Amino acid sequence: MSFSEFVFGFSDETKRKFQYLFANLDIDRHGSKRQMPMEVLSLGMSRTGTASMKAALTRLGYNTAHGFDMHANKRDCLMWDEAFAAKYHGDTSIDLNKPDFWDQLLGHVSAVTDTPHNAFGPELINAYPEAKVVLVEREIEAWYKSFERAVIRGADFPKAITLFSYLDPMGMGFFKVIQREGFMAGHFHARKGCCRMEGQCPACLPRALRRDPQSPEGSA
User: How far apart are CA 27 and CA 16, in angstroms?
Assistant: First the structure.
């Protein structure tokens, strides 16, 4: 019995609704080659309809990666950790602005959406200049309340994460590194002024700029 099954139950309806939680692809993508061209980069923040974007893009025929996919292939967390190390922690062994690394991690998809892809917007655009870029916007205050409740608070329990990682080392254990070193290590605590998205996160903008983007200050 996996830890996911222990938490979410065994009913067919539950497994059908949360298929990614019960999958275990166990694929190491290091050394993989691109199987299809990267065509769409949907780089909106989580809680701006990223799951709906995946559903729409999939319906249009794009094999689309979403943040939830890491639950189905937890080894991807290890490569995302390498990407965060390269962007935020001084690792120069990987050039994120070229397709070499991304072709391994994302070579099986033609579109991406949600976290952690959106934390690498500039790098993915540089790596795939021919891809279409989609940025879904949402009213800032409503978005931040939803983002804080669903994303930030969910990662603000280090003791619980440590416990779950101990109980499920091959599952939640993989996510612990990303929680600690990646996009949850204070990068999105925008209200406290420590967001590290290099000005890309709208919650980090001063309120005056957010409310009137057409003002002289807002257009700077």
Answer: 22
pLDDT recorded at residue 196: 44
Point out which residues pair with 42 in neighbouring strands.
134
Structural domain of residue 147, as residue ranges? 140-211
- The CA distance from 104 to 26, in Å, is 15
Residues 149 and 114 in one domain: no
**Total of domains in the chain:** 2
Using only the alpha carbons of the chain, give its radius of gyration: 18
Please give the helix or strand (H or E) that residue 112 lies within, else none.
Answer: strand 111-112
Half-sphere exposure of 210 (CA within 13 A, CB side): 17
Strand partners, 61: none
Mean pLDDT, the chain, integer = 75
Q: For residue 215, what pLDDT is reported?
A: 40
Q: What is the mean pLDDT of residues 145-165?
A: 70
Look-up: residue for tokens 């065509």?
Answer: 39
* Last residue within a domain, chosen from 134, 163, 195: 134
| Backbone dihedral angles phi then psi of residue 54, each to the nearest 5 degrees | -60, -45
Residues 114, 159 share a domain = no
* Closest by CA position to 41, among listed 30, 52, 57: 57
Q: How far apart are the first and last CA of the chain?
A: 55
Last residue of a domain, one of 134, 159, 186: 134
194 vs 181: CA distance, rounded Å: 14
